[in-house]
Amino acid sequence: MEYQLTPSQAEFNKKRLAKTAGWVLLYHANETTREYCGASYDYVMEGVGIPAYSYLDAPTQPEAGLALVRSPDGQRWEGVADHRGEVVWDTESRQPSTIQVLGEIPPRFTTQAPTSPFDVWTGEMWVKDKQAEQLAQLEQDQQHKARLLEQASQRIQLLTDKLELNETQDSTTLSQRLNDWRRYRLQVDDIIPTGEALIWPAPPE
């Protein structure tokens, strides 16, 4: 008696339907991304086709930096740029994000990180907008000056109340502290913010 010592192999016609039932090695692609997702032996009945997103032709390893995917027309395997996991920066908002899909990096994004909140993308590199930086510094200094003046005025008012209402035994020391805060307030008021680096006076102890 003659025995079959190997699994029967399915054969397919031009319509990719099995002419004879048997086992076949199939290569599978993800339904959404078309990325290769593995191979398996499947048993195919006579007259039946192979499952969707499964293919008979074997792929080859893609080059470095590429992902293995099925072509949009489903006719072949091909390599597609794979930047998944890379951090890129939006050239308009400067915000970072991590690439999660296959394909080339969109033109709006770059792998170059900006070095300051005032960087502007030129199309090839980040360049700091010095005018914007200076305006931001000017606004920050103006707000800081206003806070210092407010704090000094509150302190002066409190010391004045204590002195006028005789709420302390040491009026000489109190008068000196009051004058120190008044001089400090004048020093702060004399500072003119310009957007350049400033040296602020130290408040009295």
UniProtKB/TrEMBL annotation:
Keywords, in A-Z order: Coiled coil
Regions annotated as coiled coil: 135-169
Keyword Cell division recorded: no
Name of protein: Phage tail protein
Cited PANTHER family: PROPHAGE TAIL FIBER ASSEMBLY PROTEIN HOMOLOG TFAE-RELATED, PROPHAGE TAIL FIBER ASSEMBLY PROTEIN HOMOLOG TFAE-RELATED-RELATED
Record Pfam families: Caudo_TAP (PF02413)
Keyword Transferase among record annotations: no
